[in-house]
Amino acid sequence: MTEEESEKHYRSGLPGFLGTIDTFISKLEAVILALGVLLMAFNTIANVIARFVFGDSIYFSGEINRILIIMITFAGIGYAARHGRHIRMSAIYDALPVGGRKALMIFIALGTSLVMFFLLYYSIIYILDLHDKGRILPALGFPIWIIYVWAPLGFLITGIQYLLTAIKNLTSRDVYLSTGVLDGYKDTETEV
């Protein structure tokens, strides 16, 4: 099964209700990311065509792309955590025996989860502050705080994902980078 096929048919490695939550969040992330990228491509292409065919850009195109970039960024952090594609600086981690790696991974996952929930809290405060100021997007005319709702949603999903990763490591024999990604390196070298 290719990597693309495995992502289409993601099934959580967690048991029961936690697995159901994990699978639901996975599908939600996939829809948000796919829709965001497709809408951004369509919007950009339409704007280029409008500029060259009609001589004038779509006046709200930049704001729509700004909204979509924020949406893709914050949905993408949960996706990266789910698939173990986050940045790892693993010199010390790799030098540890399996038990030490497992303990460190649990600590890292719980710590990262706490940081994500901390950022969730402050992103909500930021959005409430923007709401109170009443700023609006100049071209689209709707409140600017609405476009930043993706930030707390992304932090929530990522925090939950790291918490689930810690639970997976506490309940399994192996070491996991996420609920579905086993620790280890793939041999990516090809012989020429």
Automatic annotation (TrEMBL):
**Which keywords does this Swiss-Prot/TrEMBL entry list?**
Cell inner membrane, Cell membrane, Membrane, Transmembrane, Transmembrane helix, Transport
InterPro entries listed in its UniProt record: DctQ, TRAP_DctQ
What subcellular locations does the record give?
Cell inner membrane
Whether Transmembrane counts among this entry's keywords is yes
Topology in the lipid bilayer: Multi-pass membrane protein
Return any one Pfam family short name.
DctQ
Recorded GO molecular functions are:
transmembrane transporter activity
- Tell me the ranges covered by the Tripartite ATP-independent periplasmic transporters DctQ component domain, including all copies: 42-170
Annotated transmembrane regions: 30-52, 64-82, 103-128, 140-164
Its GO CC terms are: plasma membrane
Q: What is its main location?
A: membrane
Domain of life the protein comes from: Bacteria
Q: Name one GO biological process term.
A: C4-dicarboxylate transport
Stated role: Part of the tripartite ATP-independent periplasmic (TRAP) transport system.
UniProt record similarity statement? Belongs to the TRAP transporter small permease family.
The subunit structure is: The complex comprises the extracytoplasmic solute receptor protein and the two transmembrane proteins.
- What is the protein name for this chain? TRAP transporter small permease protein
- What species is this protein from? Halomonas saccharevitans
Q: What is the lineage of its organism?
A: Bacteria, Pseudomonadati, Pseudomonadota, Gammaproteobacteria, Oceanospirillales
